[in-house]
Amino acid sequence: MSLDIFLQAIVSGLANAAMYALIAVGLTLVFGVMRIINFAHGEFLMIAMYAGYFAWSLLGIDPIVAIVLVTPVLMILGTLLYSGVMRFALRVPEINQMAVTLGLSMLFQHLALVAFTGDNMLVTQARAVAGVELGPVVVQVNQLIACGISMALLATLYLVLQRTDFGLIMRAVAQSRDGAALSGIDVTGVYKWAMAVGIGTLGVAGPLLVSILYVNPHVGALFTLKAFVIVILGGLGNFTGALLGALIVGLAESIAGAWFSASVAAAVPFVILILILLTRPEGLMNRSRRA
Amino acid sequence: MSALRLKNVCTGYGHINVVRNIDLGIASGQRVALVGSNGAGKSTVVRAINGLLPLREGDLEWNGASIGSLGASQRTRAGIATVPEGRLLFPECTVLENLLAAATFGDAKVHRAQTLETVFELFPRLRERARQTAGTLSGGEQQMVAIGRALMTRPRLLILDEPSIGLAPKVVAEIFDVLARLAQSGFSLLLVEQNVQLSLRSTDYAYVLREGQIVFAGESGELLDHPEVRRAYLGD
Ligand SMILES: Nc1ncnc2c1ncn2[C@@H]1O[C@H](COP(=O)(O)OP(=O)(O)O)[C@@H](O)[C@H]1O
Ligand SMILES: [Mg+2]
């Protein structure tokens, strides 16, 4: 493998990692606060991608602008998911919770198949084929945009979680639900907000992603699995861990793709998953959590 | 006039009612002890009061209004703060964050800086440790954070579930010194303690719990001399 190809792999790996991180932090945030892994997470990404696609194809709205419209919709869907499903899921054993969110994932895929057919759809603007040369490597303009917006949002989220009362309240509930309630924190309200933010981040990711990657009813499932690998790597519920996990998965995939082939690259996240679950199930940034 | 009144309270876990027919009152400014051996149901009574455990029978009155159907956070906001068994701190947050997190609503938020200053005056150690992660503190320091956090909610009644457990005598003395100062400044206290001597000496009135029921109630000083209480709890 020549140096140029290697550098190219690093750069596209980093660009992918930024998107992966954006998708994974929502999953880890919801888990951190509610202790439920939402296996329908990717289906909300799929919905956001369709929303971005139709905003462009029917209304001529640029995906970047569509973010502003799609995000509030996804936030509302997040609170509906809480009120309609998660609220009840909190009271049942973990295995039932898993089955419920998996069932939801299948349901959404089938509904999408009925509503949008199984066809692949993609936003194809002029800039979709444009590239920027960074020395020996070329980056797609859309990837650069997605990467930039994603990093800006991740930085904002990090600051909100670390520096505001809103973030402090979320972290408090994540670390001790009863301790938070005894501190006068409305735990149910925090659950709702965690879902709104966790699903809302997909409202940003969806429109960006649909100008890079085809959307079809099954696109979400793959992203749920990748996000799952990432949050396991980083330690479930750990925000900065998810960023690290995204970096590892993004880079490993693209380097494997350059070295071997695209099909090997596709298997890489799952090899990582199996290795990590067998050797360090608490994640790379392990911390004992929750009394 | 009683600030808090438990009327015929009954609750428990699963199919079992752990505490039954609890009648208990705490007047405004009064210091009350709840004593009983391990497993008697003291912490269960505490959870029935602070709302972590729903009532199965009976009711709870707070300044004349029924609060039996309110959730835990609402009871805290109404002025009932708990230093719970096991402390339930936010272990990855700093000491300062633990304290601030308990003052994110209404009046508590408005007076946050002022209450924080009061807490730091009561426990100077917490000011020194403000930027340290709570999970890395010693047991005594963690108990101080738990008390400080309860105070941040600006309560009128402070419930403490075994504040001295596992702590060195010197630290226990320091904490009880603070509790005495708090009582002087008008807080009502409900003190749950394994250490019956200590708890009867630092309160005005006491209830004795056995197998989920109140079997004695009276002035703390009198209970200290009560032959049966002495025999059961003070090793006479
Ligand atoms: N979370 C729980 N689930 C089931 N049983 C419990 C739980 N907590 C306490 N108990 C039972 O309730 C009884 C009273 O416990 P507790 O109120 O903690 O007593 P104390 O605080 O006086 O030591 C004990 O028999 C205990 O085993
Ligand atoms: Mg107890």
Explain how this protein is built.
Helix content of chain A is 75%, strand content 3%. Chain A is mainly α and 291 residues long. Chain A has a two-stranded antiparallel sheet with strand order 1-2. The mean pLDDT of chain A is 94. Chain B has 236 residues and is an alpha/beta fold. Chain B has helices at residues 42-50, 72-77, 95-100, 106-110, 112-122, 124-128, 139-152, 169-184, 196-201, 220-225, 227-233; strands at residues 2-13, 16-27, 31-35, 57-62, 65-66, 80-83, 157-161, 188-193, 205-210, 213-219. In chain B, the strands form 2 sheets. A 6-stranded mixed sheet of chain B has the order 6-7-8-3-9-10, with helices on both faces. The termini of chain B are far apart. The mean pLDDT of chain B is 94. The chains are: A mainly alpha (291), B alpha/beta (236). Chain A binds chain B through residues 165, 168-169, 171-172, 175-176, 178-187, 287, 289, 291, and chain B through 50-52, 71-73, 76-77, 81-82, 84, 86-93, 97, 100-105, 108, 149-150, 152-153.
Q: Summary?
A:
By secondary structure, chain A is mainly alpha-helical. Chain A is built from eleven helices and two strands, in the order H-H-H-H-E-E-H-H-H-H-H-H-H.
